[in-house]
Amino acid sequence: MAPISRRVFLKSGAALLGVGAFTAACGAEVPSTPPTSPAAPAPSAAPAAAGEPVPALLRSGSGEEEFFNKAIDLFEKQNPSIKINRIFVPGGGDYTTKLDLMIAAGDPPAIYAPFSDRGYRYYAARGLSQPLDDFVARDKFDLSDFHPDGMKGCHWNGQLMALPLDLWPHMIFYNKTIFRDAKVPDLTTDWKDASWTTDQYLELARKLTKKNGDQVTQFGSDAYFNGWPSGWAFGGDWLPPATYETGIVTEFVGDTDPRVQAAVQWAADLMLKEKVAPTPAQSQQMQAGIPSLFMSGKIGMAITNIGNLADFAKITAFEWGVAPAPNPPKGEKRHLHVWIDFWSMIKGVKNLDGSWEFMKFMVSPEAQRIYPIQYGPQSARLSLGKEWLDVQKSRLKLSEAELAVMTEGPKYEQIDPENWTVNFSPINSQALQPSLDKVWIGEATAAQAIAEMAPAIRKLIEETKTVKQ
Amino acid sequence: MSATSLTSPRDRPRRRSKLLIREYIAFYLFASPWLIGLLVFTIGPMVASLYLSFTDYAVIAPPRWVGLENYVHMFTDDPLVWQALRVTTMYSLGAIPLTLIVSFLVALLMHQRVYGVRVFRTIYYLPSVIAGVPVALLWMWILNPDFGLMNNFLRLFGVEGPKWLYSTTWVIPSFVLMSLWQIGVPMVVFLAGLQSIPMHLYEAAEIDGGGLWAKFRHVTLPMMSPVILFVMIELIIDSFQTFTPAFLMTNGGPANASLFYGLYLYNNAFKWFKMGYASGLAWLMFLIILLLTGLVFRSSIRWVYYEGGLRR
Which residue of A has its CA nearest to B60? Predict the structure, then answer.
C-alpha cells in the first residue's frame, strides 16, 4: 500500500473532525415545545407506580439542603419504587430561572416551591399548573389541618393548585444584652398590647444608640424594612384589599393612602434623621459576611422573620429575645406580612402519580417535622404548632411567652403580595423599589418618591394585569 | 516536429482547475471545524435572536409573532431603555478617554530603560488578572462612604468624600474610577506598539533639533496611531457591554442611576423572562456599537498613520 502523504492525512483528519462536529451539533436533542395549556392529565385509579424519577426542584444555600435530604431519604425508604431526582438551586432569581428553563425544556419539576418573589400563581395564571382537586378527591386527602390563609392561597380560579408548605411570620428580635446595658426593660410579649407603638420603638432606639464622636458604634434599630413592606408599617397598603382575593394587581393606591407615605418617611428618618438605624452603606460595612446584621451584636432591635432562627440559635455573644411588631400610631391596625410558601406541580410531569405521592408526603406531618420545623419556619399544619414549639424550646433560650409571640404572629399578619399575586414582582422591581432607593439614600422624601413611582406603576399594571396564555 | 509535451495545452486548464478545486476542498476541510462552530454557536444564535426580537417569548411558552411591537415599545414606551443608554453613554464618555490616556502614559513610563522596569510592568498588569467578582467586592469596600479607604484618604485632607455607590450623582463616576483597575491590558498593547517604533526615527528627530515633546508629537503619536485606534475600538465595545460590576455592586441602583444597558438587557432576559424584548435590546446594542466603531474607523482616515499604507 502506498504511503499516505502528510497532506492527505491532514485533509482526512480535518474532514473527520468537521463531520464529527456537525453530527454532534445536529444530533443534539432539540427541546420539545414547552407546554402551553395541555389538558391536565387525570390521576390514575391505581396508586402511585414506579416509573420515571420524580424531579424535585428545591432551594438551597441557606442551610435547607440537609433538611430536604433527610425528608426525601425518609420518603424513598418508605417508597422504594419511587426515586426522587433532587435538584438544588439557590433561591430567588436563580430558582425561578431554573424552573422556567426546565419548563421550556419539556421536563418540568414534579414539585417546586419558588421561595422567592414569584409564586406558583405566576405559572397557574399561564395555565401551567397541575390542578390537584382530583388527586385530593381520589385519595380523600384531608386539607382541614392546614392554615386557613395558606389554603386560601392554594386556589386559583376555583381550582386547588398547590399545598401550603410553611409560614414565616415577622416579629421583633431584640438584643437583651444591649437592653440590660441601657437599663431598658424587656419588650412586651403580648400582640394585643396597644401601648407598644412605633413611637415607643423610636424612643427605645434613641436610648439604645451609642456614638463615638460622629460615628455610631451601636444602632438601636436595624433598617425597618427597606423595600415595599416599609409602606405597611403604619397600617396602610400599596394595593387595595381586592388584590389579595383575585391574585392580580389591577390598582395602585399607595399614592392616595397617607399612611403609606408616613410609614416610608418614618423608616427613612430612622436612618437619616434620627440616625438610630444603619444606612445601606453602613449595613454593608457591618454585615461583612454574617448571615444577618442582627447577629453582629451592634443592633438593638430588628424586624425580621423566623426563618433566621436556625442562625440565631448559634448566637453566643449576647442574649436575645422576641417581641411583637409595634403598633402603628393613631390606633391604626397593625399591618405586617407573613410569607407562606407553597408546593405546586407543573403540568406535563412524567410520573404524575409518583409526583403526587411525593407532594403528599412533603406536606405530611412526618415530613413537616423535618422541613420546615427543624429548619426554622413554622409548619403550615395547625396540629404541628406544639411540635414546632418543642423544637424551638430545645435549642433557643426563650421563655414560653416569647415562643408564643412566634406562634401567635400569623394571626396578626397579612399575606405577602409578592408570591400571592401574579404581577406584583415586576412592578416592585421595575418601579417601586428603584423609587424607594432614593428615599433610603436621602435624595428624595417619601412623598416625592411615591409621586414619582405612581405613573410608572400604573403603566406597569396595565402591561401586566392581563396574562397571555 | 515538436516534441509531444507531457501536458497538451488542452489538458493544462483542466489540470489547473482540478488542482484549484482540490485546493479549495482542502481549505474548507481544514477550516470546517471553525466554520461549523461559527455557524452553530455565533451565526445561528444571532439569526435566532433576530427572529425572537419580533416575538413575545417568555421561555415557558412558545414564541408568539408580534412584528415590530418590541421595537416600537423600546423607542416610544420604555423610559428605562433611554435611562440605560444614558448611563452607559455617560460611563463610556468618562471611562474610554481616561483608560486610553492613563494606560498610554503608564506604557510610556514602562517603556523607559530603568532598572527593575519588568517588575513594574508586572505590578501594573496584575490587577487585570483578577477576575470580576473579587474586584467588584474589593471596590465596594474601597468606596464605602463611611468606612472605605477612599473617603478615609480624603478625610486626611479635610475633604468629606461623596457617597460613591450610594449616590445617584456619584455612582457612575465610581464605575469610571474603577475602570482604571483594568488598564493592564491596554498598557501591554501600547507597550508592544512603543517597542516596535524604529529608533532611527527618534534619532532623525534629534538630529533635526527636536526635543522631548517634538519626538512625542511627531514620532510617537503618529507611529502609535494604529494601536490607539485598535485600543479605542476595544474600549468602546467593552464599555458598552459593561455588566459584571453593575450587577454585583449596585444591581442598577440607586434608583436606576447605574442601570447599564447590559444589565437592563440581562434583567429583561433572565429576571423578567421577556426574551423577545431582550433580543430586540441586544440587536439595538449591536447596531449602536457597529455605528460607533464605523464612525471611529471612518474618522481614522484623518488621524491614523499606517507606515507603508496608502491613504484613501
Answer: A104
